[in-house]
Input
Amino acid sequence: MANKLIVSLSPHVHSGDSVQKNMYGVLIALIPALLVSLIYFGVGAAVVTLTSVVSCLFFEWVITKFILKREKTTILDGSAIITGVLLAFNVPSNLPVWIIVIGALVAIGIGKMTFGGLGCNPFNPALVGRVFLLISFPVQMTSWPKIGQVTSYLDAETGATPLALMKMAVHGDASALEQLPSSFDLFIGATGGSLGEVSALALLIGLLYMLWKKIITWHIPVSILATVFVFSGLMHMANPTLYASPAVHLFTGGLMLGAIFMATDYVTSPMTHKGMIIYGVAIGFLTVVIRNFGAYPEGMSFAILIMNAFTPLINNYCKPKRFGEVKKK
Amino acid sequence: MKTFRIGGVHPAENKLSAGKAIQALALPKQAVFPLSQHIGAPAVPVVKRGDLVKVGTKIAEAGGFVSAPVFSSVSGKVSKIDTVVDASGYRKPAIYIDVEGDEWEESIDRSAELVRECSLSPEEIVAKIKEAGVVGMGGACFPTHVKLCPPPGAKAECVIINGVECEPYLTADHRLMLEKTDEVLVGVSLLMKAAKVDQAYIGIENNKPDAIRVMTEKAEGYPGIEIVPLQVKYPQGGEKQLIDAIINRQVPAPPAIPISVGAVVQNVGTAYAVYEAVMKNKPLFERVVTVTGKSLKNPSNFLTRMGTPMSQLIEAAGGMPEDTGKVIGGGPMMGKALVNTEVPICKGSSGVLLMNGKEASRGEAQPCIRCAKCVSACPMGLEPFLLATLSMHKEWERVEKEDIMSCIECGSCQFTCPSHRPMLDYIRLGKGTVGGIIRARNAKK
Output
């Protein structure tokens, strides 16, 4: 009997948490937004999401097996599926399949596996893929179908998104802001845009789920949303015809999607609560700056990628408050 | 409800034996007494092979100021002075006694009558505690008299009693508070007198409402003792966490100790041992031990003589289950996995926990996904992932700067890690190495 006992150091119990549980938890939190996109964009949303997920899984499998020659495949840990879903959520629902496949290759190949796979990548893989596509295929990536064309895919009719209208206002089109949909329509998602970003409501439900399941903490999403609200609110108060109201900023474009699902990516965000707040405030600030003054109508992706680059620096300087720490005078 | 401010986790409580009254365990055939049952210098044997001893006879005396004497828990003949594998897994010098009868030293008051009046001076109380070999019964086994003799310049303001029992499964302290309420409270009063303070707090987690109720009722008759219910959170029984939870003060990083913020912390088991030592002249040679496990037939709390092999406790609780994969001395968060079940019960043995093979196996470690859950869980405000990685890469200087020596090895980080990383293994390696570097540096000065 004695020689059959397992001997190891404490602790001898585990919470039962796992990488898979967290990843699939995030996927569950993405379901409401996926349903909304299926309702508004129909076939297009289904084709784009499926293509993106399947190609992300495929590229991760090929790279781990044939290039890195690892024995164990990691495609079941859920992270590649998340990358696939998030990439799909960040593109228009009429994007051709071949462009999505390129996006998936860049996201998984360059954004993730080049650095060694899950846990090692400095930048959010889905955003690397998305920004690559935005720069390479600016026309296809910035013509968004109008909502309600459930049966069309490539042939969907496109229209201006709220963010484009906001940009036109900044560039002197005085009537542009008046064409914006109502804040309520923006909130529930009845507006054009990338397929997963339209409904702030659905994304917020996802946030509540992740907070409840303790998958993420409130620090990053709340600090981003609060910063955007305050900063865009100040600009709106200074000049309401030039700058859209904070509600419009919060409910449009990829802001909610970015704040809730992209900026909170474990691997690429800071490790301490203090660091998370600095990171979130900076993302919120950069987003509003790019939206109002930059060349692109949407600033979320760039803001997150820029702050991803600062994450190691933030980790280095933002230490948690040590137990019993006395302030140095 | 009060609790400590930084980090913490909530493991499944599994207090299987909470409803089981304390039972006296039968005498062993042979009792084995390691000479190092405490932190500090090992005790020095005062008996030799063939000597006859009684229950309560001193068999080894303290080997220094930070040390404690060892007493026989049985009557019989010293058969040998040899070594034994203790809970740490190492061979340690030990005294073996073959049991014959059950004859007690006459100085010990064996009546069950409660004695409350004590005319001894603080110094005399400390001397009695020291002479009875009382050490911290929560597991750390720090000699109690040392804590009651503050270093020059430090002054105690209050006594804090640990009735938290935050380790899952263990119920020994819980039962003691329920069944020996007055004895524990008299022990606390003695500790207050010895530490020269008028205030004591007894922290109890609110998963033991019966203990909180009984203790609160009885404490009314003891001036200066306050029962403080605490929110259930691990590691609340850690000395520093308990002080923070109860008097809202944080002990600074080492070399500061609890007395630096005016607190003397003792376990309820220790308070009970102090009562017996001072009022009943009974040295520390038995204690309550929880024997537990999900597959065990009859999880129990046994009043056990020191030196009894753990196998005897397991037998008394229904025998070793077929599926046993790991036997732990102590609780599942900080206890030690035993190499065999013949390890003797010592002063710090709070429990024997049997886990089945599946529970006992660690999950396969995956790469760190930087989720920061360990940072949120660390009760000392450290970054466990960083300490583990730096230790893995032997970055001793950096890991010292990241305050690795503040780690209390509670295991919350590893418990919570979704990637099942063996963080604490590496942190222990780092702590050991950095500790050696610091000692070498101090020796040069």
